[in-house]
Amino acid sequence: MLKAHDGVRLGAALLTPEPDQPVYGATITLGPDRSKPIAAWAKSCREHARRGSIVLALRARGQPGSTLDTGDLASRDGGWLRHGLESGFDPRGGTTGWVFADAAADLIGACLAVRRLLAERGVPGAPIGLWGRCVHAATAVIAAARLEGRLAVDRLVLTNPSAAVWPWRLKNPHRGHGEAVRRFINDHPEHAATARHVVSLFDAAIHARSVLCPALVNLAVADGRVPGHTQFAVFNALGTPRARRWRYVVETGHSDESPADVRRHAFFSRIAGDFLDYRTRPEAAMEPYLSVLAGGEPSGAPAQAGLFADDAETGNGPGPGKIDGALVAAYEREGRTLDSLPYTDAFERVVEDVSGPGVSMTRRDALHRLHNLRKSGRLPRLGRATDAPPRIEPEEEAWLAERVRAAVGSLGRRDALPYTDRFDAIVAAFNELTGRGLGPHSVWRLIAKLAK
User: In terms of Cα–Cα distance, which of 225, 231, 227 is closest to 205?
Assistant: First the structure.
């Protein structure tokens, strides 16, 4: 049990490493399956504690497990998020009766409490990480933003972040929390101005700009409760440098998950566990998963881990510097720009040149690494592309652009498509629709042109 800033009692469970085990940091996790008792939920976090992390599993006020002083707000009056919207916000006192804003304040208080626990275990200033799901991912963003400069959150994990881009969500019907707020405004027009003002102050996509810590984000393109583009808006708005934020994209989320995506979400939990291991730098923890994070496609295990990592114990296998050097040399030797390289003999030669003893590189791995090298400014500029995309009709371009957005969320994410089943499906559907016989390279060149 944890007492909030206004005296409300919150359901919580605390896990700590064994007394003789070093403590390296702390993780606060929010927003589990409400049907799971909090004690059972806490037990699922035991692996974090075994890695030397204090774990606080926190249930949001008014949700099952935190209803002693508030009642069950999730099952009455149209849903949890709309409770208290009519109360407004007092900027002088920083108070609000809206349950979402109070939940964000509760999380800030929990961070302060965990900092005291770390000091008691003899590690003052040890890193603190937050892991929030859905609407609680939004409270994690707001808490991290408000604590910046006071008690810095060191790592942030978000799963399908909600409560963002409110102007759009209030205009467009969609299941979930956005629809709950929209209906509140329709049902209570006398409180409409107050409600719109309050949600605008607590928009996760706006607060994300103040978040500077490393972040790992699970995004669903099609989600029955949280529109995909609002999730991407939170990720894109993060103030975290691009090299220190990673996204894991799946097709579906929440109740619309396919069996394959259930597996992908489970795999994300594994990645997040490594990300929140404070014995390892975030960049090092994510290195084995870079090929997976490119498209959100789990390979069953970080089988690619040896691809970009030295074998510290045996000294076998090339390190990331050698592999990157070989990639750059092969790329320069072929003389084709990166956008015109996929699905060509030149690219096959690049992959073949880099592969060898101790290195098992797929086409997807090689292309993703080349894009990372370009983003970091380490890939030489080769001038214009050596070939031009074929000419197609404007309506065909519009259809192709829409299919890319449906597959990966936006044209800006096009690089996640090559050498995936999703891209093969787009090529086949395009040729069937248009009666053309374009190969994968030509279709890719069209997509690359659309994104310019």
Answer: 231
Query: DSSP alpha helices (H): ranges in 243-362?
Result: 259-275, 282-286, 290-295, 320-334, 345-354
In the numeric block, which tokens belong to residue 48? Answer: 């974090």
Coil, helix or strand for 185? helix
Cα distance between the two ends of the chain: 53
**Is the alpha carbon torsion for 50, 52, 53, 55 positive or negative?**
positive
- Is the separation of the CB atoms in 107 and 27 below 8 Å? no
CA 138/CA 426 separation, integer angstroms: 33
In whole angstroms, what is the distance from residue 369 CA to residue 375 CA?
10
Q: Are 266 and 296 in contact (CB under 8 A)?
A: no
* Tens of pLDDT, residues 127-160: 999 999 999 999 999 999 999 877 779 999 999 9
CA angle 404, 156, 291 (to 5 degrees): 45
DSSP strands (E only) in 1-52: 2-3, 9-10, 12-15, 25-30
Are 211 and 145 in contact, with CB atoms under 8 Å apart?
yes
- 230 burial via Cβ count (<10 Å: 0-12, 13-18, 19+): buried
Distances, alpha carbon 306 to alpha carbons 79, 291, 318, 350, in Å: 47, 12, 9, 19
Cα angle 405-32-19, degrees, rounded to a multiple of 5:
125
Q: Which amino acid does the sequence have at 47?
A: E
- Helix or strand holding residue 152 (H, E): none
Beta bridge mates, 252: 222
Instruction: Calculate the CA 307 to chain-centre distance.
Output: 23
Give the H/E segment covering residue 301: none
Q: Return the structure tokens found at 224.
A: 């029955």
CA quadruple 334, 340, 346, 351: dihedral sign: positive
CA atoms within 13 A on the CB side of 293: 25
Residues 6+ apart with CB under 8 A from 262: none
**Helix orientation angle between 440-450 and 394-408, rounded to the nearest 10 degrees:** 90
| Adjacent-strand bridge partners of 130 | 28, 156
* pTM check: above 0.85: no
Helix axes 99-120, 135-147, angle to 10 degrees: 60
Distance CA 58, CA 69 (A): 16
Nearest-CA neighbor of 304 among 315, 317, 321, 322?
317
In this structure, how many other beta carbons lie within 10 angstroms of the beta carbon of residue 437? 7
- pLDDT tens for 418-443 read 988 889 999 999 999 889 899 999 99
